[in-house]
Amino acid sequence: MRHGVFLACAVALALNIACPVARATTQDEAVLKQQLQRLADRLERVEKRNAALEAQLKAYVERPTSKDGGLERRIQALEGYNKRLEDALDTENISEREPELATRLKAVEYNTLDIKKQAKVIDSIEGFAAGASFTSVGQRASGVDTKGTTLNYRADITVTTPTVKTGDIESKLFGHFRVGQGRGIAPNLTSFVGPNASSFQLGTAIPPENSAVLLAQAYYRAEIPLPFGGFKPHSREKLTVNFGKMDPFAFFDQNAAANDETRQFLASPFVHNALLDNPMAANIGADGFGFSPGARVAYRNERSKNEPWGLSFGVFGAGRSTNFSEGFRSPFQIAQAETTRRFGGLTGNYRAFLWRNGQAPTFLRDPSDLNANLLRPHRGGGVNFDQRVDDYVTLFGRLGWASGDGLPFDRVLALGAEIGGSYWSRGADALGVAFGVNRSSEEFRNRSARVVDAAGRPVFGFAAHGAEQVAEIYYRFRVHQNFEISPDFQLIRDPAGNSAARPLKLVGIRIQLNQ
Question: Which has fewest Cβ within 10 Å: 210, 355, 451, 482?
């Protein structure tokens, strides 16, 4: 039939070209016939190839079996594989006999679950803040028998919980753990000055070769925007409430240049007001480690962003209440006013405070007798400032006065400066220089020679006169962002008002690690 169609096409083609062919030569007719023949041969080969392919396809579809099991066997094998895959996915365990696809799917599922668990853990700790530091100091004194060089270390770990919002009120918890060994060089000296404010030892019940962790601070903090119930984004006033076990110096008598014994000055008069924190009669009222239960309320006004101001008031335990041996009785109370001012574009902070301690320790007892409980009411006040006078220079000063029975000294003055290392191309370094005076009280001058311990031995053994002078210089060298080394030198003249004593020279080095 296909040959007939081809002949019909050939006849039509011949008719269409009848007139030209009639005028063509015999040679043209021969060429045309050859072309038609080649076309016919090619068409025949195509038809044979198509017929062969149709036969192969028919045989493949209709054959019942073959060497590879045929199409039906393949379908059965595929159904069996699907059944094994379903059974494998029904169990959580991974087996070597199960299909590879099931193993891969389970692996992906387990990885997804792990990622979800990690995300839940991250969500649970998001907002927590933690810090850790390690401080070690070695000091040696000349001019007194100090039994060689003293060493001590202190480690601090702090944790702050995420902020919890209750309406406009934001609150969080703060925890502080401390551990240390070594009392430093202070027990070997008779001085109003504590030459190593970083020393820390957990009491006499724990041998010096051992250390234990102390929960130093644990308190609650809430910030309340004012006016209460107003539109918080527009609020420029706030009220802060703290209560729990705290370090009172974290909230009062702060100073930008002289406040941190782990990085700045080591001598106690340049860390805090000497009347509040000294080895002989610390009026701050805290326990032997510097912490106390209490509460604080603070108001801050930032209507002028460049010159904010604030008022704060705190009540802390005193006497036996500092270690929770009894309830609050005659507590330590302190009120502070503070403001920030700018002079020539340089920021300064100024503070003034009044305090009273109903159970303050005195020099009338043997300082080494920890069981003595001779306490008296003391009261006093102070001012405190830190002021930048250049891009990298901050001046600071403290002035304090006090009154009451058993005060070893009643007037204090401290002045100094911290100079940044940018002047000598060491921007992270700092140089600190300070000078202080602690004037002995009239009562101490009259009675120091007569104070004796339980065995009748003199506690001080000299008649105090005038004032004690102390000077300190340190250089803080930044090794890298988590490691600092600070050589330190101190000079104490007329220690504890003893004009007959040789000047004390203390050389030390401090190592500080932060994370």
Answer: 210
